[in-house]
Design goal:
Blueprint: H1 3-27, H2 33-38, H3 45-56, H4 59-72, H5 81-105, H6 110-118, H7 121-153, H8 160-208, H9 212-222, H10 237-248, H11 250-253, H12 255-261, H13 267-298, H14 310-318, H15 321-358, H16 364-386, H17 393-405, H18 408-416, H19 422-440, H20 452-470, H21 475-489
Helix pairs in contact: 1-8, 1-15, 3-8, 3-12, 3-13, 3-15, 4-13, 4-17, 5-10, 5-13, 5-21, 6-7, 7-8, 7-15, 7-16, 7-17, 7-19, 8-13, 8-15, 8-16, 9-13, 10-20, 12-15, 13-14, 15-16, 18-19, 19-20
């Protein structure tokens, strides 16, 4: 059987599995908001971990990271530092506090949560617009990655437009049908698939090419700069500090991760996910970066975004056809595991925070119906945009990450600082977003290598503190949330009723 035939068989089998899981989840999902949006707040250990981890492992990991390592070498390693250091404490403290309050009061989206914390519709609208605006580029990375992969793996037999369309349709079906449960179940299978492929590839490729020692010798002889930590250009001290800020807290700035986090069955499940996440990150990112670095030795001469496909060029040239087919399945898995969560979250916020908030007579059942319409519409629009000329995966993802990072100050202050006010939160978001966007447009110079994310987060934080201190306190709103945390902290065994809260 030819490689193209194997690829098509593998892709068809994978799509069939996703459809079956979507149908199974749909049969256990009712038409109420708690069930469709949060899987009845019942996600357990491994499924919860896979739902959170798989959502964050986008095409950025299998395409963007190897591409950057191909051109930049070992300088990319410090990107791992932020997530490794901060994911666990954020799960244990920030995530736990959000879970407690959301479960007690029945909050479903981060927009709803922070609207009530700051008692501000204005802030809610700003958050909604920001989350939507930055999530769409992130969804794009999935459509682009899937379309390019199917085109490359089949030698053009499946053109880019058809590959992107196929990925979009499959994600639309199981997200539309199964809601949170559908995406969580498919994320579990997807996470296992792409992690297995990366581990397999990082073992087989050196074996097929003469060993790791030979690869390193070739790099030392022909591209020694890739084996030395550079402090210039995109890897300067200022850029490194910016990357550390960008990746340290980004996981919990994603609205699609926030919603999965509050879907945990218990605090123990949430904390177990926080412990497993850094381990899984190493198991996934390290092979992706190594494969990109080895590709510079084994497949030299790739220019720009061509390096995004280096893992799959390596498997196609060095390994049996079945491994290449497995690689495509893994890429489709990592693409879909993020797209589904992102689209479900946007549809959730559109139906809950817009239709549910401002349409008279809205009910949880009607919100679910609206959400299903939004799933289809959002994916159709995203697919249409993906047909335009797009930059590299890493560039698109980093642009979106910067926008999400600017939410850090208000997200964290709303949880930990009683004195934070709605005026401070709104000012922080407006100032931070303005700085981030204008920085990417080149409206101000790069100083000491510090990227827009550095200025957006630091100035946004200062703005929140100053404006909050200059505006009236919101003690009643703050106390409603802090009382829940204080009560839990004062108990020997913190507990909150496990019965799903009534949707607001």
């Amino acid at each position: 059987m030819s490689q193209t035939a194997l690829v098509l068989v593998g892709a068809t089998a994978f799509v069939g599995l996703m459809v079956l899981l979507g149908r199974a989840a749909a049969s256990k999902t009712s038409a109420d908001a708690e069930s469709y949006f949060l899987a009845n707040r019942g996600l357990r250990r491994f499924v919860l971990f896979a739902a959170i981890f798989g959502t964050n492992m986008t095409a950025f990991v299998m395409l963007g990271l190897p591409g950057v390592a191909y051109h930049g070498g070992i300088s990319i390693w410090l990107m791992l530092a932020g997530p490794l250091l901060f994911v666990m404490p954020l799960s244990f403290y920030f995530g736990y506090r959000c879970w407690l309050v959301a479960r007690k009061y029945g909050y479903v989206t981060p927009v709803e949560f922070y609207r009530e914390r700051f008692q501000s519709d204005g802030l809610a609208v700003l958050m909604f617009l920001g989350f939507v605006g930055w999530t769409i580029p992130y969804i794009l990375t999935g459509v682009i990655g899937g379309g390019r992969a199917l085109e490359n793996f089949t030698g053009g037999s499946i053109p880019y437009w058809a590959g992107g369309l196929a990925v979009t349709i499959v994600v639309a079906y199981y997200t539309w049908a199964g809601g949170m449960k559908g995406t969580a179940w498919t994320n579990t299978a997807q996470t296992l698939l792409f992690m297995a492929f990366l581990l397999l590839a990082v073992v087989l490729i050196p074996t097929a090419s003469g060993g790791t020692g030979r690869i390193i010798e070739t790099l030392q002889r022909e591209q020694p700069q890739l084996l030395t930590r550079s402090w210039d250009g995109p890897f300067s001290l200022g850029a490194t500090i910016s990357q550390l800020i960008l990746f340290s807290f980004i996981i919990f700035a994603f609205p699609f991760v926030w919603i999965r986090m509050i879907s945990a069955r218990s605090s123990k499940d949430l904390r177990a996910s926080g412990i497993a996440y850094p381990v899984a990150l190493v198991v996934t990112w390290v092979p992706a970066i190594l494969l990109g670095l080895w590709g510079a030795s084994l497949v030299p001469g790739l220019i720009g975004a061509e390096a995004d496909s280096v893992i799959f060029l390596l498997t196609a040239q060095l390994l049996p056809d079945w491994v290449a087919a497995f690689g495509l399945v893994a890429l489709l898995a990592i693409v879909m595991s993020s797209m589904d969560a992102q689209v479900l979250t946007l549809s959730n916020m559109l139906s809950r925070d817009i239709v549910g908030r401002y349409q008279r007579g809205s009910t949880p059942g009607s919100q679910v119906r609206w959400a299903r319409v939004f799933v289809v519409v959002l994916l159709a629009l995203t697919y249409a945009v993906s047909l335009l000329d797009m930059p590299g995966i890493f560039d698109v993802a980093q642009f979106a990450f910067t926008g999400f990072a600017v939410f850090y100050p208000l997200l964290i202050a709303g949880i930990f600082w009683r004195r934070a006010t709605k005026w401070g939160a709104m000012a922080s978001l407006v100032v931070g977003q303005t700085i981030a966007i204008t920085g990417y447009l080149g409206w101000y110079p790069v100083i000491a290598g510090l990227q827009p994310v550095f200025w957006g987060v630091t100035i946004g934080t200062a703005t929140l503190i100053v404006v909050s201190l200059l505006t009236p306190r919101q003690d009643t709103a703050a106390e409603r949330f802090h009382a829940v945390w204080d009560e839990a902290r004062g108990r020997r065994s913190p507990a909150v009723s496990r019965a799903p809260a009534t949707a607001r």
